[in-house]
Structure formats: structure tokens, C-alpha cells
Specification:
Number of helices: 9
Order of helices and strands: EHEHEHEHEHHHEEEEEHEEEEEH
Structural class: alpha/beta
CATH architecture of the largest domain: 3-Layer(aba) Sandwich
Strand content: 25-35%
Strand order of the largest sheet: 2-1-3-4-5
Distance between the termini: 62 Å
Largest sheet: 5 strands, parallel
CATH class of the largest domain: Alpha Beta
Length: about 240
């Protein structure tokens, strides 16, 4: 069984390796001290199991997992706030709250069912949707850009556009894809800066320069970037409210 440990604390990695000595069937292939290194290791080794810290430099544990198309089994090792712990428990994604005992570590391994990877994956995805780690809180969105990782500050987002199972994030640097829903961004981005004007568009309304009538009962919004985007009837009502017109 292939395993990777991703944690920026050397002591935490050492404790996990020590506890794993009682599980000779689990082989630690690599230790990583940040999310960038961890992502590369997962892509290289395709492990069965990852011990993953949440609060790390560069990118955190949630952001790392969002970049994976087929996440392995995850056991979080964290000193995270209690609101997130409740989300772990609700979706049966296991975690080890630091400092954790050897008994708790063993129990965590015993709970994993490697024959039910799809079930575990669905629970992990459900966890992403309910934890409070969102762009509005972290102030950024992490995406894959080719073989690289791109960190987009939320304040640089001009607008978002629905694209099948993805969302296009438009910035001055270009367009980037994120495998999330429009509803996710609508609920997590700050209403003091972003508004959904159409089923396919969320805009940074601080960039609006003009709203023009368009066809029957329709409107188009013009951003200072030159972008022209359609506004639905309900979107126009929301725009009038936030703009005070």
C-alpha cells in the first residue's frame, strides 16, 4: 500500500512514520512539507493513502485536493478549527486532531475501506462543499494552468462564466478553469464585490461602466475591461438594488 505524508511540521511527519511501523504493509514513498511538493508527489506516485495537513505554506490541504482529478484516500492531520471538524464528522472523512495518540491513529487506519474508493471520493467532495474554506475567506482561488499551479487573488477576478462542469475565471492575465459550480462561487464570493447577473455569469460589479438595454426586456452590462455580458431579468433587479438605481 503506497503512502505519502504531507505536513509542514517535521515532528508531525516523524510521529506518523513512527506509528506506521506497526503497519508494514503501508510503505511511505515520500514526505512533503508543503502543498506544491505534495501535489507533485501525488501525481508522480499515485498513492493509495495520503496523510494531509490543512494549514500549510503556499497552498493548503483543501486547495491541493481540489487540484486532483482522482484523489486518493485522505486522512487529515490537523489542528484546524472546530467548525471544520464538524464537517469532517458529518461526511465520515477521517481526521487526526493534533496532538493525536497512537490509539487514535490506529483507529483511523482501521476505518478506511480501500475497496470503497468511489464512496470515499464522494464523501471528500461533499466535504469541500460544506467546509468554510472558500475564496471569500482565503482571498484567493487556486487553479491548474497547464502543468503549473496558479494562485488568483479574488480581487483580480473580473467575472466568472459557466462552462459545463467548470467555471471560467476571467482576470487581466487571462482565463482560467476551475472545477466548481457557479452556485459555489455565488455563495462564497463577497456580495460587496460580486453579483450573479445571469445563470452563466457572475461579475465584479465594481468594474461596471454602463448598463444598456438589449433586445426585448433585456440588458447588457459593460465592464471597464471592455467585456459586454448579458443580464437576465432577475439579474437586472439585483443590479439595480446593489447599485441603488
Amino acid at each position: 500500500m503506497k503512502c505519502i505524508i504531507i505536513d509542514d511540521e517535521p515532528l508531525a511527519r516523524m510521529i506518523i512514520k513512527e506509528y506506521l511501523q506497526d503497519f508494514p504493509e503501508i510503505k511511505v514513498l515520500q514526505e512533503c512539507n508543503d502543498g506544491f511538493e505534495g501535489l507533485k508527489a501525488i501525481q508522480q506516485w499515485q498513492p493509495d493513502l495520503v496523510f494531509l495537513d490543512i494549514q500549510m505554506p503556499k497552498i493548503n490541504g483543501f486547495e491541493l485536493l481540489e487540484l486532483l482529478d482522482n484523489p486518493p484516500h485522505i486522512i487529515f492531520t490537523t489542528a484546524f478549527e472546530e467548525y471544520a471538524i464538524k464537517a469532517f464528522e458529518a461526511h465520515a472523512v477521517d481526521y487526526l486532531l493534533k496532538p493525536f495518540s497512537k490509539e487514535r491513529f490506529i483507529k483511523s487506519l482501521q476505518q478506511l475501506d480501500f475497496q470503497q474508493k468511489e464512496v470515499q471520493k464522494s464523501k471528500t467532495e461533499a466535504l469541500f462543499q460544506t467546509t468554510s474554506v472558500s475564496p471569500v475567506q482565503s482571498g484567493r482561488v487556486v487553479v491548474k494552468d497547464g502543468g503549473k499551479i496558479k494562485i488568483i487573488p479574488v480581487k483580480q477576478i473580473q467575472y466568472l462564466e459557466a462552462a459545463d462542469d467548470y467555471v471560467k475565471i476571467q482576470t487581466a492575465e487571462g482565463c482560467f478553469l476551475k472545477k466548481k459550480t457557479m452556485l459555489y462561487f455565488e455563495e462564497s464570493l463577497s456580495p460587496q464585490q460580486f453579483i450573479r447577473i445571469h445563470r452563466s455569469y457572475i461579475i465584479n460589479y465594481q468594474l461596471i461602466t454602463r448598463i444598456d438595454p438589449y433586445e426585448k426586456d433585456g440588458h447588457m452590462v459593460l465592464l471597464n475591461t471592455g467585456a459586454r455580458l448579458p443580464v437576465s431579468k432577475s439579474g437586472y433587479a439585483k443590479l439595480k438594488e446593489v447599485l441603488g438605481i
